[in-house]
Amino acid sequence: MKAVRIAHEAVFKHGVKRAVTIVKIDDRRDLKRSMMDKVESLKKAVGSVNTM
Question: CA-based Rg of the chain, rounded to a whole angstrom?
């Protein structure tokens, strides 16, 4: 949680007056996936957001 606090506080150092930080942890242990699988999944998700 220290990393979350650091990230949250960092935006205030740039002049932001209000910030909301939400942490969501989706921990799935029923499938074996490599880190590369996870990175590719994230790229697809971010790519779909950018094309909207």
Answer: 15
